[in-house]
């Protein structure tokens, strides 16, 4: 049997190489199908990896608590419209929710920032020092401000990369420089490492961090002292996130004196939730990919079946001769199946090459990140094999069922 | 020794639309090992039908056919294929070589379906080609060979598996006189030296003269069955 298969494969290759154009055109459907899938999967995975990196840039096991909407005489404000979360909430959460490894808070406003003769309009965040650790911010120069800075409402600032580029000349030393936020002088003590785009698409590096107390007393002019824009918390393990969310809800509802039926006046989101949104987007992409792949593999398969039917007719006499010298039905069946599979696998190989080249070109020309996936390549092969077998079966069976006498007489 | 072929009351009936065609009407025939039988008859006499049935390419509608003691009349297709592979060799009028395939590979074909190793297939096929005088032409394609040479490749293919019977259906029908003579002397040699039973279908009496037994068919029946000294012996 191994000799039989080897020789049959050799025969199939010879027959196909004899009709190169025909074989090429037949394979085209498979080539396009497999190529499209490989390229699209590569692009999809590249995009997904980019999104995952964005989600990861939020920090590790982060929980974000936003103030909820309020209802004033039946008119509902939007999310974050209410001033319901406070520094006290953060402190209490840390005390009463053992799963939380840290809590932090932040409040932001867009302000005019001036450095010498340059100025920039960007978001200024008043934060607790713990916010920096929760969000995993690191520094390219200088370092974070301290708890003491927070308590003494020190005029120190940390600036992001985008802010740095807009306020300082290239090569100009930012650490130690004095910038003015709403006319209040601040000393730059740290330059933040870049994080890139957030999962929502905003530039995370266009940012200035100052101590929360300094912000509310000297810059923002807050109406209610201690009210924050958002609370941040983190857990040691990602598995603890759902339980931590429940604990936070319980503590906050108690603190805000919400009765049984009353809705939460805050919204809790975790990194996992944000990742899920992206996941569903990529799932839509996968379904579309699958549809494209199915259609082109179907078309490719029909092409293979068509050409094999032609081949069976052309080679009727040969089939008769083979039967006369002792080929069993299974031998004839195998011969044509092997030809079909050879065609489809060749198409698959070329398709994989086309797909990889396509993905690389996308990266080079459009600058999209792509990841060549081994899984996609393997499944492309399996599918081409399947298409060859499935669509080869009918013509091969037709050949195997020929009557040897009629086949020998066929003109 | 038991006869190689035993047929009893062999019938073959085709149905073409509403018309019933009785191609064979009760054939009784016994052929011993080593016989050289010529089957003659006009077209439509049933000689090809008989050869197809004896050659295990077809099965009778009714009647008994035993080949080497094996009941063929009711055998399954795979057993028929096995019999064709091991017991039977065919030589056709139109050679029926596989196009664009070398002489060697054509001659290998029966061994290919026996599942021999490629090396063994090549060795035996080369020996068979040498036997028919085609040593050195192993890699030629059918189109590069003359009619007589193509028929010799076909004979090599028929004898490579060491069959007990060789069926030749008008083997010289497409050949000139000289080539015909070559082919017939090869067949005669195979019959004499190797003791291969040969059943030759022809309508040319000078070709039939090589045989030691002559069957004449008419309307699906054997009308004459003559044993005689073959032609070459007569000439000598």
Which ranges of chain B are low-confidence, i.e. pLDDT below 50, for 5 or more consecutive residues?
none
| SSE arrangement of chain A, N to C | HHEEEHEEHEHEHEEEHEHEHHHHH
User: How would a crystallographer describe the biggest sheet of chain B?
Assistant: 6 strands, mixed
Spatial gap, N to C terminus of chain B? 30 Å
Shape of chain A: elongated
Q: What is the average per-residue confidence, as pLDDT of chain B, rounded to a whole number?
A: 92
Structural class of chain B, by secondary structure, is alpha/beta
Element-by-element helix/strand order of chain B? EEEHEEHEHHHEHEHEEH
Percentage of residues in strands of chain B: 25-35%
Distance between the termini of chain A: 32 Å
Global outline of chain B? globular
**How would you write the strand order of the largest sheet of chain A?**
4-5-10-7-9-8
Could you explain the architecture of this structure?
The complex is a heterodimer of chains A (411) and B (236). The longest helix of chain A is centred in the last third of the chain and has 44 residues. Chain A contains 13 helices and twelve strands. Chain A is elongated, with a radius of gyration of 33 Å. In chain A, strands 4-5-10-7-9-8 form a six-stranded mixed barrel. A two-stranded antiparallel ribbon of chain A has the order 2-3. Chain A has two domains: 187 residues, no CATH class; 182 residues, no CATH class. Chain B has 236 residues and is of the alpha/beta class. The model of chain B has no long low-confidence stretch (mean pLDDT 92). Chain B has a domain of 65 residues. Chain B contains eight helices and ten strands. Chain B is 34% helix and 28% strand. At the A-B interface, helix 1, helix 10, helix 11 and helix 13 of A face helix 2 and helix 3 of B.
């Amino acid at each position: 049997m191994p000799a039989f298969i080897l020789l049959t494969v050799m025969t199939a290759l010879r027959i196909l190489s004899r009709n190169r154009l025909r074989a090429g055109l037949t394979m085209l459907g498979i080539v396009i199908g497999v190529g499209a899938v490989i390229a699209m999967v590569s692009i999809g995975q590249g995009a997904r990896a980019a999104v995952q990196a964005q989600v990861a840039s939020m920090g590790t096991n982060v929980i974000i608590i936003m103030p909820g909407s309020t209802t004033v005489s039946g008119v509902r404000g939007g999310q974050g419209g209410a001033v319901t979360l406070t520094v006290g909430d953060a402190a209490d959460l840390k005390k009463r929710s053992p799963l939380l490894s840290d809590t932090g808070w932040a409040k932001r406003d867009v302000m005019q920032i001036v450095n010498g003769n340059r100025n920039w309009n960007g978001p200024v965040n008043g934060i607790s020092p713990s916010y920096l650790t929760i969000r995993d911010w690191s520094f390219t120069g200088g370092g974070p401000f301290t708890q003491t800075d927070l308590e003494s409402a020190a005029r120190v600032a940390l600036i992001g990369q985008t802010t740095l580029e807009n306020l300082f000349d290239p090569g100009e030393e930012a650490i130690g420089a004095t910038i003015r936020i709403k006319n209040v002088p601040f000393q730059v003590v740290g330059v933040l490492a870049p994080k890139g785009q957030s999962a929502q698409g905003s530039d995370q590096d266009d940012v200035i961090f100052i101590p929360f107390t300094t912000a509310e007393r000297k810059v923002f002019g807050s109406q209610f002292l201690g009210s924050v824009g958002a609370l941040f918390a983190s857990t040691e393990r990602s598995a603890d996130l759902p339980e931590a969310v429940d604990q936070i809800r319980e503590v906050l509802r108690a603190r805000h004196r919400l009765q049984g039926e009353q809705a939460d006046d805050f919204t809790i989101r975790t990194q996992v939730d944000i990742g899920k949104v992206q996941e569903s987007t990529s799932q839509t992409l996968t379904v579309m990919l699958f549809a494209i792949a199915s259609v082109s593999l179907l078309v490719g398969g029909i092409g293979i079946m068509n050409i094999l039917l032609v081949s069976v007719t052309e080679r009727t006499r040969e089939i008769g001769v083979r039967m006369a010298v002792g080929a069993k039905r299974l031998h004839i069946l195998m011969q044509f199946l092997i030809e079909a599979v050879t065609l489809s696998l060749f198409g698959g190989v070329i398709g994989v090459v086309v797909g990889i080249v396509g993905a690389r070109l996308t990266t080079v020309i459009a600058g999209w990140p792509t990841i060549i996936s081994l899984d996609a390549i393997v499944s492309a092969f399996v599918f081409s094999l399947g298409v060859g077998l499935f669509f080869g079966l009918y013509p091969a069976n037709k050949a195997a069922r020929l009557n040897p006498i009629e086949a020998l007489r066929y003109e | 020794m038991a006869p190689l072929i035993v047929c009893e009351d062999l019938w073959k009936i085709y149905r073409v639309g509403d018309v019933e065609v009785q191609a064979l009407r009760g054939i009784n025939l016994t052929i011993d090992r080593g016989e050289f039988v010529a089957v003659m008859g006009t077209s439509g006499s049933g000689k090809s039908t008989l050869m197809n049935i004896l050659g295990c390419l077809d099965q009778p509608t009714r009647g008994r056919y035993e080949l080497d003691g094996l009941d063929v009349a009711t055998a399954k297709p795979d057993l028929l294929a096995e019999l064709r592979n091991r017991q039977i060799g065919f030589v056709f009028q139109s050679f029926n070589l596989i196009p664009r395939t070398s002489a060697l590979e054509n001659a290998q074909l029966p061994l290919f379906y026996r599942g021999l190793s490629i090396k063994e297939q090549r060795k035996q096929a080369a020996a068979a080609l040498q036997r028919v005088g085609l040593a050195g032409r192993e890699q030629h394609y059918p189109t590069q060979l003359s009619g007589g040479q193509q028929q010799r490749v076909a004979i090599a293919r028929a004898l490579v598996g060491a069959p007990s019977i060789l069926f030749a259906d008008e083997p010289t029908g497409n050949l000139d006189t000289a080539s015909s003579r070559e082919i017939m002397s090869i067949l005669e040699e195979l019959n004499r030296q190797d003791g291969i039973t040969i059943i030759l279908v022809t309508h040319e009496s000078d070709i039939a003269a090589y045989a030691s037994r002559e069957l004449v068919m008419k309307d699906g029946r054997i009308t004459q069955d003559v044993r005689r000294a073959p032609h070459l012996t007569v000439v000598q």
